[in-house]
């Protein structure tokens, strides 16, 4: 099976998995290939153009992960490759290990969608590495303007991603409300200072990695809530400075195993829900996005008690327009411009999909 045939097969599998029938639509599928679903971009997936697109997707995910309160999962949902990413991760199982042991490389690459995941991974690394410093500077010195941009991006993205739900009925609306409440509840949890033993570290890693692949919830924020962000970052810094001892290696290994366990276990659950209960799951994920928008509200100020702390540990409070010492019009223009970028990009993508069809 060549690359083109593989892409056609995968697109057919996704269509079979996610199509819904509707009496109101004469029995035709109500969710065949939405403009935001990955199937709409499936044609270039096995080409150099597809690789560039996936690297760009990863770059955007990495850039988002450098912003406190923004999840790479949100970007994956916005750019339309969330389902495919979760499916690829969930395919890491005993069958994949068997293919690896038997050196059946072609089958392994196809099963794990490695061309897609490797390109995505390259983009994520480049995005984090190249933009972490810039984002840190912007959030430290231009926080309100930066938040305005991300507020506009996410708000418009909610409007775009809503089409991934084929029919908004009472159950899907309730699922969306549940997602909103979960995101709001997570943002209100007080920071923990739990004992950093190996079991707690494993548990924290498993929970945080699940948050990282959920739209609207920042994995770094969850680590901060659990009280392990600073110790883990400290151990990673010491490791790269080659200040290594047995304790650091042991704890980082346990942390990595916890991440792997949480990622594989949770991705399987998400993949099942997306295949069997797609609309309800997507509605919940959209709710998570909506619930996280409050953390990006531009009118915020750092509390005096945390102003001298590192950026990740600073706390913010909402302020009124009268309390803001900058230009409100600038924030509005930035938010609107960011929202227009998303809406225009969505229109271009949809038109390209229609022409390709």
From TrEMBL:
A matching Pfam family: VCA0040-like
Feature: compositional bias, Acidic residues: 1-10
Ranges annotated as spanning the membrane: 114-134, 146-162, 168-186, 198-228, 248-270, 328-345
Entry keywords, A to Z: Membrane, Transmembrane, Transmembrane helix
Region (Disordered): 1-45
PANTHER family: INTEGRAL MEMBRANE PROTEIN, POLYPRENYL-PHOSPHATE TRANSPORTER
Identification of the protein by name: Membrane protein containing DUF368
Species: Rhodopirellula sallentina SM41
């Amino acid at each position: 099976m060549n690359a083109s045939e593989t892409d056609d097969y995968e697109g057919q599998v996704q269509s079979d998995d996610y199509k819904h029938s509707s009496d109101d639509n004469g029995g035709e599928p109500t969710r065949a290939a939405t403009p935001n679903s990955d199937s709409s971009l499936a044609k270039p997936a096995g080409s150099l153009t597809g690789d560039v697109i996936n690297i760009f997707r990863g770059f955007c995910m990495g850039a988002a992960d450098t912003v406190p309160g923004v999840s790479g999962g949100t970007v994956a949902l916005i750019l339309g490759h969330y389902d495919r990413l979760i499916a690829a991760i969930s395919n890491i199982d005993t069958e994949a290990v068997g293919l690896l042991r038997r050196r059946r490389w072609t089958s392994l690459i196809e099963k794990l969608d490695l061309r897609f995941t490797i390109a995505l991974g390259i983009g994520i690394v480049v995005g984090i590495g190249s933009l972490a410093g810039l984002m840190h500077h912007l959030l430290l010195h231009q926080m309100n303007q930066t938040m305005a941009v991300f507020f506009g991006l996410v708000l418009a993205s909610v409007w775009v991603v809503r089409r991934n739900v084929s029919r908004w009925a009472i159950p899907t609306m309730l699922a969306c409300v549940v997602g909103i409440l979960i995101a709001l509840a997570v943002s209100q949890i007080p920071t923990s200072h739990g004992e950093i033993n190996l079991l707690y570290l494993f548990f924290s890693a498993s929970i945080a990695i699940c948050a990282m692949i959920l739209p609207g919830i920042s994995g770094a924020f969850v680590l901060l809530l659990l009280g392990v962000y600073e110790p883990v970052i400290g151990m990673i810094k010491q490791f790269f400075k080659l200040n290594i001892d047995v304790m650091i290696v042991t704890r980082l290994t346990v942390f990595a195993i916890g991440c792997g366990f949480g990622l594989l276990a949770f991705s399987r659950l998400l993949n099942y829900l997306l295949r069997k209960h797609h609309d309800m799951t997507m509605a919940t994920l959209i709710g998570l996005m909506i619930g996280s928008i409050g953390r990006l509200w531009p009118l915020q100020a750092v509390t005096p008690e945390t102003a001298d702390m590192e950026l990740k540990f600073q706390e913010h409070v909402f302020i009124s327009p009268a309390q803001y010492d900058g230009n409100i019009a600038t924030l509005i223009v930035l938010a609107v411009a960011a929202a227009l970028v998303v809406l225009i990009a969505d229109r271009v993508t949809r038109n390209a999909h229609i022409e390709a069809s």
